[in-house]
User: What shape does this take?
Amino acid sequence: MSRIADVFGKLASARRKALIPFVTAGDPAAGGTVELMHALVGAGADVIELGVPFSDPMADGPVIQRASERALAEGVSLDDVLGFVTAFRKRDSTTPVVLMGYANPIEAMGTEAFAGRAQTAGVDGVLVVDYPPEESAEFAALVRRHGIDLIFLLAPTSTKERIDSVARLASGYVYYVSLTGVTGASHLDVGGVGAKLAAIRRSISLPLGVGFGIRDGESARAVGKVADAVIVGSRIIQEMEQGDPAAAAARAATLVRSIREALDRP
Assistant: This one.
C-alpha cells in the first residue's frame, strides 16, 4: 500500500479529514525548505504538497507566483526539489510528499529519469498541472511502475468525460479546485462544492481533496464536512510573507495548527 493510501485509510477509520498544506520548494529560502516541511508535519499536516518552482505558473495566482519567483531567484531547480525530499526522508519515513508543478521541468529532466529519481528520493505522488488525463496514460503507467501516484485536478467546469478520464488514470487522491480561476481566490461556495463532489464520487472512489479558497480554520472545517481532505496553499505563503523569513516555518506551523484544530473539533 502506498503512503498516501495508508494515510487516507487511517484517517477514514478515525473519521478524520486530511490536512494538506502546499508550499513552494525554496521559498522563502532554499535552506529552509526541509525545516519547513518538518514544521508542517509537526503542526498536523497529513500530506505535503511541495511546489516545483516554475517561471510561468499559469494556474497560480499572484501569491504563489511570487513564491516561485523567490525560489527561482534562489536558484532552486527540480534537481534541488528532489534533494529536499531526500533530506526530509532522513527524519520522516511516513508522511506522503506530492510534487506539484508543470510539465516543463519534468520534460527537461526526462520523464524516465524523473520517475526513477523521484522514487529514490521518496516522492509519493505527482500533480502536473498541464498534463491533461486524456494525454497522460503513458506517464501514469511510468510513475505507477515507480510506486508514485498520479494526481489530477478537477474543477466546477469539469465534464463527465473529463471526470471519467481522471477515474481511469488517477491514484492517491483527486484535487478538486473549488473555484474557477487561479490559486488565491476566495469566493468559496461550500454548498456548490458538496454538490459537485457528490457527482464526482459517482465515478471516482478515490479520496477527494478540495483546494482554492480555504483561508482559515472555519473555511477548512466547512469544506471538511463534504471533502476527504482540505488543501491550503496561498494562505500559508501569505502568512510566511508577512514576517521575518527566518520565522517563516514557525508562522506557517502556527496557521496549520489552527486549521488542524478546527478540523478535529467535535
Summary: Residues 3-264 form a domain with the TIM Barrel fold (CATH 3.20.20.70). Confidence is low (pLDDT under 50) at residues 181-185.
